[in-house]
Amino acid sequence: MKNNSNILSAFSPISLKEMDNVKLLNRTDTKFIFNYSLFDNILSSVKNDYQILTINNKNTASYKTLYFDTDYFRFYNNHHNRKGNRYKVRIRKYIDSELCFLEIKNKRKGRTIKTRTPISDFEHTLSTTSIDFIKKTIPDIEPLETKIWNTFDRITLVNKERNERLTIDFKLNFEVGDKKIGIDHLVICELKQERANRNSPINNTFKLKKILPNRVSKYCIGSGLIYDHLKKNRFKEKFLLINKLKAS
User: What is residue 90's predicted lDDT score, i.e. its pLDDT?
Assistant: First the structure.
């Protein structure tokens, strides 16, 4: 995987404090996936439209995530079965800053609502405090257990003109016990907006390259790849596309 520092340096920087105005914890999400070989070309086309989040002179951040689910994979299955009101529960650590959060994502009526609280570090068994926090969002929550680790690198772009953020994740890896799976060729791009706007600069770039929106979840991809027993017939097209992108 080649170094992409040259194209990233073409973006003007934005600080974390300056980005506070576009937190978008209640938002619409539009996701796209593409082969890493297109990375420089796609970013070059929007370098004048976005700023890049830069912390301590670094514009690429490393993330580590631990996902939780019930023993029968309630969250995974709700996503697989296209349930309209569904959740993800995870602990995410921002490696470079050593900040750690317990996060809950609720997908409801086409919107994503994220709540989170800072914690000191990963919890393999959720503390009483963490469980109480989760219950505020998921009152009927059942006992949760660790399911899968995920690591990736991310760049975050902020639109100069409108309330819009763009996260671009790459170097994806999943791990459970001794089983590890890497998907180095895959890039997941998530466009976060207050209201869906199909005339966004990055949207226009994807249209030109015939890259269509694709509902994709890192948790579901990783779990589907690692856990053989899980239902995945409704994810079949996604796995076929991921494999197709590897050959492109």
Answer: 98
pLDDT score of 22: 61
Other C-beta atoms lying within 10 Å of the C-beta of residue 105: 20
Give how many domains the chain has, as a whole number.
Answer: 1
Contact 184, 215 (CB under 8 A): no
CA distances for 138 relative to 6, 22, 167, angstroms: 44, 26, 26
Task: Give residue 141's domain range.
Answer: 5-247
Nearest Cα neighbor of 11 from 166, 195, 209 is: 166
Q: Find the CATH number of the domain harbouring 192.
A: 2.40.320.10
Is 126 exposed, middle or buried (CB count within 10 Å of its CB: 0-12, 13-18, 19+)? buried
Residue 198's nearest CA partner among 208, 211, 207 is 207
Contact 191, 203 (CB under 8 A): yes
Closest CA to 136 of 116, 153, 122, 120: 116
Indicate the average pLDDT of the chain. 92
Q: Compute the distance between CA of residue 4 and CA of residue 7 in angstroms, rounded to an integer.
A: 6
